[in-house]
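queue> pop job 88
queue> type: inverse folding (structure -> sequence)
queue> payload:
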């Protein structure tokens, strides 16, 4: 995830199937992308964040039929549920994809027409084992396992040949491998984490052409241009969303910067092989060279995270019915606040190569240790003392050394920012959050060592007390700027208490900030009114656990 020189940043999530309501897994990927998008806006980057829903799947029309609704009606209901959940969770996506939107359908039709014309999509024949009772094709291995009989009624499967459209994936094998190699050479692998790359590369070496259409969808889907009998396979339709929603004069520069695609490992193959091959193929068509431009080749990447699993280790999924659904998510937000959920998911989630168990105990522990006892407590403690000893105004002296104790935060800050930037660039979220907390802990330890509450008893030492508290509030201001992508609401509340409400003003409605300037030491002017306010994160009593 590298920001190109022009400071443009484009981040996406998968578009989610609307056969059912959203769950924690969907919220997670969108939340991760949101934290990253906010970080880039905070830096001042021209940022575009896209999420949305994938509608034309057979499982959507099947589910609709169960409820006696049209696929569109069912998709509308669930798309609204996804949109509503994301809005409630204050996701800052710039647009929301619906693959049933006219804009998307028109663009996909244009792209597939171009590919038909160039010959990279061609008409062919699909030969496979057909279960007539079930009206479906059975993959070769499954057919073989069942002795070429129907799993359902035991009747022999029939070998059936059907007209189909194919994409010439095989033709792009070498180009894909060369692309992977170039990116590795440049030190910016296309697939991350690195560990996931090998399985993909090995599969690319053997990739064959893939069918990209189907019949019998009952009209639910985008027709293959010039052949109303066939609809474009849902995965091809879906992958194109990353392009259809930015393919206009206002947004095309986001595409050119090279997207960061956040996904989970379940859908890596489509993103790691089929997606870049489709882009390569489209770029060879008249008027589409920009689709595979330099910025795309250098910066586009696929970050494939692991799963949230239940405490017994099963993947959380709709089909297993063990996911945290919107109601359970609401409960967490009600009990702990939205920022607490954001913080927990972003810092303790399965971003790397191992799955994370969603544990209510761990949630409470992290909430209390990082948010209530560290950031929240430090903000209250320092604001309270400023209220008590300095008439609730920022004290004027900020010497680094008080009572023989040197305040280290100022030097630390110089290394925190570059460290956070490179961590974000590597899609590491726990690191930058922890860096900010290290700064907060530095404040706590400085207070423990200098004991301003004791010094304040001696009127002659009031300047020292001022120096300590002035340093502390300044360090907390900087920590709050660094924490904003994770816990925006609480940071904004804190800013309004310390005279920094203008940060929030600037960031409002997806505006951009000035991270570098805001984390410079010594900006809180002496005499700035400091409000105490309620605890930002009230401590949670463990026996009350949700
Ligand atoms: O695959 N842990 O949609 P989908 C973490 N429409 N993340 C999870 C998760 C879990 N247990 N379960 C789901 C599709 N996710 C296609 C995508 S994109 C062009 C088309 C998240 O509704 C994760 O991001 O099955 C995963 O990749 C995605 O939801 C799959 O969502």
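queue> result:
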């Amino acid at each position: 995830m590298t920001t190109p020189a022009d400071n443009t940043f484009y981040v996406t999530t998968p578009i989610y199937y609307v056969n059912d309501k959203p769950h924690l897994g969907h919220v997670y990927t969108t939340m991760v992308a949101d934290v990253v998008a906010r970080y880039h806006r905070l830096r001042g980057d021209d940022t575009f964040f896209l999420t949305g829903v994938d509608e034309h799947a057979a499982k959507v029309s099947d589910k609709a039929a169960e409820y006696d609704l049209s696929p569109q009606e069912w998709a509308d209901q669930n798309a609204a549920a996804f949109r509503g959940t994301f809005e409630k969770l204050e996701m800052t996506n710039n647009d929301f994809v619906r693959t049933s939107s006219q804009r998307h359908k028109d663009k996909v039709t244009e792209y597939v027409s171009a590919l038909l014309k160039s010959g990279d999509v061609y008409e062919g024949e699909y030969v496979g084992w057909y279960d007539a009772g079930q009206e479906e094709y059975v993959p070769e291995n499954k057919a073989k396992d069942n002795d070429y009989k129907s799993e359902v009624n035991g009747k022999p499967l029939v070998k059936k040949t059907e007209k189909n459209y194919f994409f010439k994936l095989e033709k792009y094998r070498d180009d894909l491998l060369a692309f992977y190699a170039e990116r590795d050479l440049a030190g910016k692998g296309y697939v991350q984490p690195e560990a996931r790359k090998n399985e993909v590369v090995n599969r690319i070496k053997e990739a064959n052409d893939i069918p990209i259409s189907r019949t019998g969808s009952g009209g639910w889907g985008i027709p293959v241009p010039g052949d109303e009998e066939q609809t474009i396979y849902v995965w091809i339709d879906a992958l194109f969303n990353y392009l259809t929603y930015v393919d206009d004069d206002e947004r095309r520069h986001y595409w050119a910067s090279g997207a960061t695609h956040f996904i989970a490992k379940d859908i890596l193959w489509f993103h790691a092989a089929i997606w870049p091959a489709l882009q390569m193929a489209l770029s060879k068509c008249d008027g589409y060279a920009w689709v595979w431009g330099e910025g795309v080749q250098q910066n586009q990447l696929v970050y494939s995270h692991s799963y949230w699993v239940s405490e017994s280790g099963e993947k959380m999924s709709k089909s297993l019915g063990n996911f945290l659904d919107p109601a359970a998510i609401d409960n967490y937000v009600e009990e702990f606040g939205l920022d607490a959920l954001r913080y927990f998911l972003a810092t303790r989630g399965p971003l790397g190569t191992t799955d994370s168990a969603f544990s209510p105990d761990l949630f409470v522990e992290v909430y209390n240790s990082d948010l209530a006892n560290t950031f929240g407590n430090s903000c209250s403690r320092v604001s309270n003392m400023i209220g008590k000893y300095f008439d609730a105004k920022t004290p004027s002296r900020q010497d680094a050394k008080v009572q023989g104790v040197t305040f280290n935060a100022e030097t630390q800050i110089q290394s925190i920012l570059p460290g956070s930037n490179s961590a974000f660039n590597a899609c590491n979220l726990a690191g930058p959050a922890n860096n900010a907390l290290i700064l907060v802990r530095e404040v706590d330890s400085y207070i423990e060592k200098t004991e301003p509450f004791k010094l304040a008893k001696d009127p002659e030492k009031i300047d020292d007390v001022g120096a300590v508290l002035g340093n502390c509030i300044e360090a907390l201001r900087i920590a709050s700027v660094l924490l904003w992508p994770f816990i925006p609401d609480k940071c904004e509340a804190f800013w309004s208490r310390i005279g920094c409400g203008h940060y929030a003003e600037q960031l409002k409605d997806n505006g951009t900030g000035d991270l570098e300037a805001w984390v410079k030491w010594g900006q809180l002017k002496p005499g700035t009114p400091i409000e105490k306010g309620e605890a930002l994160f009230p401590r949670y009593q463990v026996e009350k656990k949700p």
